[in-house]
Amino acid sequence: MEKERANLLKAFGTQVAEPLRAMVMGAPLEDARHLAQRYDRMRQEAEAQAIEVSKRQMKLRETSGNGDMISRLEAAESKLQELKSNMGTLGKEAVAAMTAVEAQQQRLTLQRLIAMVESERSYHQRVLQILDQLEREMVSERQRIEGAPPPVIENSMPPPPAYEEVNGIFMRTPTVAELVETVEHFLAEAIQSYRAESETELNLSTGDYIVVRKVSNNGWAEGECRGKAGWFPSEFIEKRDRVLASKVAQVF
């Protein structure tokens, strides 16, 4: 959008500001200014000549009618008339020039205003397109995120110890640590379901009762439930000191 804004300002400069500046500094308006200045100078000269004629008329009335003064008065009056005639002609030219310039300025100003409005409209349309595209991309990204499968959480728990379900014997000689881990059998209740991932593991459903025979310090426990034995996470169970006889029967 910053790029579109820069394009809009550039369009304002080339299509509006520069043509208006050229119009103000252009030849037609400059010619009209010169005519107006010439008219103003001629008006000042005519006013001065009118004062001169008035003075000569007063002097002529005060004297007995000197021929030289009369001729000077006639020359001044003739010049005054010539100035008035020129002023009339120049005034008409100046008015016509200013009228033409005004009409031209109005026409060009209207054109520049139209160009400015068009540039502004194009800018907003482009910005709207950008926002629509951005909205579509955001909706698409949200749908992709919402529709993506949940991330697979890798089980950081180590695998259960080696276990032989058939004869209940460990495949290797127990270490001292393993001997310490061995506990007396106790009953526990599954507080969370667990799905076995190998043949040595035991499926659990919430509420199942298990005879726990071994608890390992790596987070696994070994026991029997519903006639099957295997390993399961020890955090999925809780020890129970008292259990109904009907629940104990379910273990075997």
Automatic annotation (TrEMBL):
* Alphabetical list of SMART domains matching this protein: SH3 (SM00326)
- Recorded superkingdom: Eukaryota
Keywords, in A-Z order? Coiled coil, Membrane, SH3 domain
Q: Where in the cell is it found?
A: Membrane
Question: Per the record's keyword annotation, is Nucleotide-binding included, yes or no?
Answer: no
Specify whether DNA repair is a keyword of the entry. no
Question: Which residue windows are coiled coil?
Answer: 29-93
All copies of domain SH3, residue ranges: 183-242
Q: Which InterPro entries match?
A: AH/BAR_dom_sf, Endophilin_SH3RF, SH3-like_dom_sf, SH3_domain
Pfam families attached here? Answer: SH3_2
Q: How does it sit in the membrane?
A: Peripheral membrane protein
In Swiss-Prot or TrEMBL terms, this protein is called SH3 domain-containing protein
The organism named in the record is Aegilops tauschii subsp. strangulata (Goatgrass)
Q: Provide the organism lineage as a comma list.
A: Eukaryota, Viridiplantae, Streptophyta, Embryophyta, Tracheophyta
